[in-house]
Every structure is written in C-alpha cells, then in structure tokens.
Design brief:
The chain contains eleven helices and no strands. It is mainly α and 288 residues long.
C-alpha cells in the first residue's frame, strides 16, 4: 500500500506530463511534419536527428534510473513518433518517383498514402519490438475482435452513407456523380484504410497505454485527441475549418474510447477510415 502511494503521480506531475507531452507531440508532427516540414531542408535534417538522439538518450537514461524509470516508455514513444514521421518524410515520395505516378491524381494520392501507411506502421511496430515491448502494448492484437469489427463495420457503413453530402458541405466536392465515385472506389478504400491505420497506430496506439499511468484512461484519451485535433488546424482541404475541428475532437475521443474498450486497434481503424471518405472525395474531386 505504501509503495502504491509513493508511485502514484501527484496532480502537479500529471499537469507537467500533460503539458510536456502536448508540446512535444505538436513539435514533432507540426515542425518536423511528415507532410510539410516548417524548417529549411538542412535545418530540418539537423533538427530531426538532434531531437531524435536527445529523446532516445533520455529514454535510455530513464530506463536505467530507478527514479526516472516510470517516464522511459513515454520518452521512447516520442522518439518512435519522430522516427516514424521522419522515415515517412524521407521515403514518402519513393513510390511516386519509382512508378512515375501523378501525385495529384486519385491513383497517385492513394498509392502515396499507402506508402505513408506502410512506412509509418512498419517503423512503429519495429521500434516497439526492438525496445522489448509487445505489439499488444500498442493495441495491435486480437483484443475483443468481434466487438471491434462490428463497431468498425457499422460506423464505416454509416459514414459512407452520408459521405457525399458531407464532402459537398465541408470538403469542396462539387458535381460528383455515381460513375465517378465508382471509378474512384478502389483508390478511396486504399487511401482511407492506409491513412486510418497509420494515424491510429502512430497516435492512439502508441500513446494511450503510455499516458495511462499518469493521467488515467479518460484523460489520456482526451489529451491525445486534443493533440491530434490541433495537428489538423492548418489543413486546407476543408471549407469550414472551425466546423471541421469541432467534429474532429469528439471523433478522436471516440476512436480512442473504442480502442480502449475493445483492447485493439481494428474497430478504431474502420471507424476512422469511414469518416475520412468525405475528405477523400473532396481531394479527388478538386484534383480533377
């Protein structure tokens, strides 16, 4: 009982962890973005390497320290996040270049997103295993598979049913036809499943369990949802930025909740993929 009390985080510690995690998460994915980095090429490369080495060194130090040990997985998770986003940035256009694809066409955008998903997911899985962590620690496991698949499938179908009007209302998709959507359908599915997989694993899968000891499951989920929503503040594919962010936050909380309750990533991936369909319709429609 005494040991439990001694290791229980104080309110001040919870606040510090939440603020530092939020700041570090935004720094990693906003400044060292896997899509549009903010710094010039040389500064970006030096910054990525420097921050990665600092996070890895801090994680290894914490792992070997009796007092700091409780922080090592969180520090290592931030290192993995930057490593995955950096790997995606450096090889993100490889598939497009190798196959001479048009990155502004539906096929090119979908294959680019597949490339992103494969790179990010592979790095997260590999570095998790190298550290001695199980894939279950990032929710890549069977879990309550039937429950997750049912929730994911139903929510995917519901989102798909209203995708066209939402894409027209919020994502600049005009003059869509059934024929066009049918022709795009393989690329839509490839895009949304790839995007949802890498985002769910890279954000909620990677950090929900790591933040839980400090914040508890509810506040850990809410903090990740806030960071995830904040990263979408500068997107240009919506015609209603405020409405988009207002919808993204509760959806992000729902995806985390489903992951926690089903103890696996599958239901959240399917739900997330369904909600991305209107966005992809807008991207494909405006790329014509």
């Amino acid at each position: 009982m005494i040991d439990a009390e001694m290791t229980r985080p104080t309110n001040a510690e919870r606040i510090i962890v939440a603020v530092l995690f939020g700041a570090a998460g935004l720094l990693i994915v906003a400044v060292f973005s896997p899509w549009v980095p903010l710094l010039p090429a040389t500064q970006d490369l030096v910054g990525r390497i420097g921050v990665m080495l600092a996070l890895l060194a801090a994680a290894l130090f914490a792992r070997r320290s009796s007092w700091w040990n409780k922080y090592w997985q969180l520090l290592y998770g931030l290192f993995v996040l930057l490593a995955a986003s950096s790997a995606d940035w450096f090889v993100g256009n490889a598939l497009i270049r190798m196959n001479a694809l048009d990155p502004a066409a539906p096929k090119g955008m979908a294959l680019q997103k597949l490339n992103d998903g494969v790179v990010i997911t592979a790095v997260v899985l590999l570095l998790t295993r190298i550290s001695g962590g199980s894939l279950g620690s990032i929710y890549v496991q069977k879990g309550k598979l039937k429950q997750g698949i049912i929730i994911g499938t139903v929510s995917f179908a519901a989102a798909a049913a209203v995708a066209v009007p939402i894409s027209q209302l919020m994502f600049k998709a005009q003059n869509l036809t059934i024929t066009q959507i049918w022709q795009w359908s393989p690329w839509i599915l490839l895009f949304v499943l790839s995007s949802a997989t890498d985002e769910e694993i890279m954000f909620r899968g990677l950090f929900l369990r790591k933040l839980d000891p400090f914040l508890g499951p509810f506040f850990a989920n809410c903090l990740i949802a806030l960071v995830f929503t904040g990263l979408h503040a500068a997107v240009t594919y919506t015609s209603d930025q405020i409405g988009f962010l207002a919808a993204t936050l509760p959806l992000a909380v729902a995806w985390g909740y489903i992951m926690q309750k089903t103890d696996a990533v599958w239901g959240s991936i399917l739900f997330h993929a369904g909600m991305d369909i209107p966005i992809v319709l807008g991207l494909f429609a405006t790329a014509r």
